[in-house]
Specification:
The protein has 145 residues and is mainly α. The chain is built from seven helices and two strands.
Length: 145
């Protein structure tokens, strides 16, 4: 029985790593009066979408949400449990995989158009941007002739 997987070991490790990054960023929060805190986990989910692509970021987000659903305290303010998915934060949590699945390459192009200096003598090629993000450089890179 020779079965092949659609995901390599590297892909699975990246998904697990970003699930951990989302869990850490969820703890950076500002309490709000209606019970739904403002957290950095939405930034981490969008970062995962930019770095990993749509499929792997959705998997990383689902792993994060499954950990929170079974009770591991990875959600905001070190909370966890299925009750968080039916309370006021439930809509936000359920929308995270959709967010990670839909915000990928167009976002990278938009960020790089806003961040990179537009010089009339430099030709900006956004192709190495994804590779720079995958390598962890975290900056937009342009090649000038």
């Amino acid at each position: 029985m020779n079965q092949t997987s659609k995901f390599s070991v590297r892909d699975i490790c990246y998904a697990g790593l970003f699930a951990a990054v989302i869990a850490v960023m969820a703890q950076i929060s500002i309490p709000m009066p209606l019970g739904v805190p403002m957290t950095m986990q939405t930034f981490a989910i969008t970062l995962a979408a930019v770095v990993l692509g749509s499929k792997l970021s959705a998997i990383a987000t689902l792993v994060y949400l499954l950990l929170g659903a079974v009770g591991v305290p990875v959600l905001a303010n070190f909370s966890g449990g299925i009750d968080k998915f039916v309370g006021p934060t439930g809509g936000f949590l359920i929308s995270f995989p959709i967010n990670s699945r839909t915000s990928t390459r167009p976002l990278v192009s938009l960020v790089c158009l806003l961040v990179l200096p537009l010089s009339p003598t430099a030709r900006i090629r956004p192709l190495p941007i994804l590779e720079a993000l995958r390598l962890g450089i975290g900056a937009c890179v342009c090649r000038c002739p």
